[in-house]
Amino acid sequence: MNQIYLPKSASAMIPGQYVTINILTNSNQSNQKTNFKPYFYGLKQIEPIKLEIVQKVFNIISKYTEKEENIIITGSLLDNGFNFNDIDIIVLSNKTNAKMLEQEMLSKIGIKPHIIMLTKEEFVQGLASDPLYQTMISRCISKNRLIFNFKPRINAKLLDLHLLKSKTLIDNFNILNGREKYYLTFNLISITLFLKQGKITKDSVEKTIKKEFNLKSLDEIKENLVDKDFLVKYKNIYNKTFSLIMEKLKHESK
Amino acid sequence: MSQNRNKLIDLFIGNLSNAILHRILEKAIKQEEIAGRYQKEMRNSLEIAKSYREKINPPSNFPSKDILEIKERLIRKVSSELSLRISKGYKNLSLENVEVEVDLALKEMKIA
Q1: CB of B87 less than 8 A from some CB of A
Q2: Structure pTM?
Q3: CB contact (8 A) between residue A171 and residue B15
Q4: Residue A8: its pLDDT value, please?
Q5: CA Rg, chain A, in Å?
Q6: Same domain, A127 and A163
């Protein structure tokens, strides 16, 4: 252990504090860290350890992908705390082997990735017609700046198909766990809001869930503390949303 | 016991009909519209139906009377959901393939 002397103006370091000294010019790692400037959307803060994971993900994808247009990290990894099971990643590229990337990430990072490969055109189409895509980019970290111009488009058939997933909660309320109930509720409310507003965010969906089901916290669903009253309200919203989609379908077919 | 079995069969039919309907609707939508669709690895209706199937006694050699009843109820349920959509103007949907899809699903569930 050696001592180093710093001018008084280096206020971040107090006398007696232990520090690590690196040679700046030869250190690839420190260069990488200073060059790592991802773009944050809808996020106030993120734990430093998660940021390291994000950097590793970006590095692996860039290494194995030819000319990726962007990499977007979304999902539960970005929520507060460490209750995530996987990393949701959207890779905008024409050429990549998702299976190989998944294996590489699993071995290097140790967390299961869930990779969606899309071209930019497919992604923009998804943003315009699929509420879940909109909620994904409303809270995310991306490698490059996100610039998408899209006009919301109601595709009744697609929304009908998505809504059908949420029917599982009505039929199986007693056997689903909290995480499954939350996902299906999020899906239902995303579709409902999308039909009304066209553009939605993760925050707006979460606020609406709390309001519609009179919840103090979303953890009440995630921890499976909701009761039959929740189910009654859920059925009611499901039926109204289904009727609305059928109405839209009628207009589309004219 | 018998009442419990009937309840399990009801739940099995509910989930399996949902899964069959999902498959039919997916085929009716243009492929590019659902390409790369965001799908989380969640238990879906088909997997839940499978778990009910395992709970229904007897696990193998379903009585043929029961098979026939389950098949008919599935066809009725799926056809009714499809008919509702067709009446609203849903194109590319037909009731012709319902029986084929039901047979396929029952085979997957080892009931056929």
Answers
A1: no
A2: 0.83
A3: yes
A4: 64
A5: 22
A6: no
